[in-house]
From TrEMBL:
<dbReference type="InterPro" id="IPR020818">
    <property type="entry name" value="Chaperonin_GroES"/>
</dbReference>
<protein>
    <recommendedName>
        <fullName>Protein groES</fullName>
    </recommendedName>
</protein>
<dbReference type="InterPro" id="IPR037124">
    <property type="entry name" value="Chaperonin_GroES_sf"/>
</dbReference>
<dbReference type="InterPro" id="IPR011032">
    <property type="entry name" value="GroES-like_sf"/>
</dbReference>
<dbReference type="GO" id="GO:0051082">
    <property type="term" value="F:unfolded protein binding"/>
</dbReference>
<dbReference type="GO" id="GO:0046872">
    <property type="term" value="F:metal ion binding"/>
</dbReference>
<comment type="function">
    <text>Seems to function only as a co-chaperone, along with cpn60, and in certain cases is essential for the discharge of biologically active proteins from cpn60.</text>
</comment>
<dbReference type="GO" id="GO:0005739">
    <property type="term" value="C:mitochondrion"/>
</dbReference>
<dbReference type="GO" id="GO:0005524">
    <property type="term" value="F:ATP binding"/>
</dbReference>
<comment type="subunit">
    <text>Forms stable complexes with CPN60 in the presence of ATP.</text>
</comment>
<keyword id="KW-0143">Chaperone</keyword>
<comment type="similarity">
    <text>Belongs to the GroES chaperonin family.</text>
</comment>
<dbReference type="GO" id="GO:0044183">
    <property type="term" value="F:protein folding chaperone"/>
</dbReference>
<dbReference type="GO" id="GO:0051087">
    <property type="term" value="F:protein-folding chaperone binding"/>
</dbReference>
<dbReference type="Pfam" id="PF00166">
    <property type="entry name" value="Cpn10"/>
</dbReference>
Length: 97
């Protein structure tokens, strides 16, 4: 049975990116050099409404690579994969190549 999680309001579902622990040549990297809190946006909510009832859309879209806070978010496990739910305002920024 396939499950699909659709975030509500201004929530963003993120799959954290696990950095490689060794280089292509086989050199093991220290844990500190591989730690970057980033993730790929899997799903976004519709947004939140202000006091006048106007919809404020979420600032990221599916497929974006985002910078995440060190702590926070709600851990969700679906089909043996680990995801995190964050509010739109908790995401620190987007990463571009």
């Amino acid at each position: 049975m396939a499950k699909r999680l659709v975030p509500l309001l201004n929530r963003v579902l993120v799959e954290k990116i696990v950095p490689p622990s060794k280089t292509h040549a086989g050199i093991l990297l220290p844990e500190k050099s591989t730690k970057l809190n980033s993730g790929k946006v899997v799903a976004v909510g519709a947004g939140i409404r202000d006091k006048q009832g106007n919809l404020i859309p979420v600032s990221v879209k599916e497929g974006d690579t985002v910078l995440l806070p060190e702590y926070g978010g709600t851990q969700v496990k679906l089909a043996d994969k680990e995801y995190h739910l964050y509010r739109d305002e908790d995401i620190l920024g987007t990463l571009h190549e």
